[in-house]
Write a structure and sequence with these properties.
Length: 122
Amino acid sequence: MDRIAIKDLRIYAYHGVRDFEKERGQLFILDVDIFADLSEACRTDNLEATINYSQAAQSIKRVMTENRYDLIETAAQAVADCILAEFSLAKSVRVCLKKPNAPIAADFGYVAVDITRSRESE
């Protein structure tokens, strides 16, 4: 299976359990891998035969900014659902959603949730 990767997509959004997270917002960083058969695009050099990563990035941004979730798990699921719904060529999708400024009293790089969803698991 072939893969289209969108790495370190930075989106400012308003997700979190605490009120101040919902009011002030914060940075989220996403890694999204979309798995599909890209052999036709490789043969034909035709944009219509692949998943347009610019459109995919805009869809991810829309899901992350037009909705508010308490949990990053729910936000990651919404991103996965969107990719599978909007891009028929996508067979499965992996979403790693990182929250580098989570309200934790510790020195850490980020917290994250990493999910994989496929059409077969629907």
